[in-house]
Amino acid sequence: MNAEAADCIFCKIIAGEIPSTKVSEDEDTYVFMDINPGTRGHALVIPKRHTTDLTTIGPADLTSVVLKAQEIAKRALSSLPADGVNLINCCGAAAWQTVFHFHLHVVPRYAEDGLAVPWKPGQGGDAEVIAAAAEALRG
Ligand code: AMP
Ligand code: ZN
């Protein structure tokens, strides 16, 4: 285990050194309830192998985590039951990441849960800025 993993709260959860409300685990992933849920049933899906964020996770672990998140999302819809689900990943402190072990939030949504996206959908953006950003993303 490297130094970053040794200090990692989610690695400690996987190792059972810190308690968690486990939903499930398999060879590659661990699923547990968020301690500070945005809505009822908010769960976190993490790879067992420590990795910092979206830029460092390997393709096999990313695939395992996404597929597991899909499974949990379906179960949230059928069993809680939720009306919808958001999958959220925060990559970097500027994007609200606070725990630097890659994780997907599975956030069940309910018709009247009051959560709102932090930008204003449907407002229309500056076409030149959008085009320039697209050019930057094309690399
Ligand atoms: P993020 O801001 O995307 O890095 O999300 C980190 C999430 O981990 C937050 O939603 C926290 O509530 C959650 N969290 C932090 N510590 C624990 C813990 N010990 N058990 C369960 N969830 C935790
Ligand atoms: Zn970790």
Automatic annotation (TrEMBL):
Active-site residue list: H103 (tele-amp-histidine intermediate)
An annotated GO BP: nucleotide metabolic process
Domain HIT: 9-116
One example GO MF annotation: catalytic activity
Motif (Histidine triad motif): 101-105
One Pfam assignment: HIT
Protein name, per record: HIT family protein
Provenance organism: Flexivirga caeni
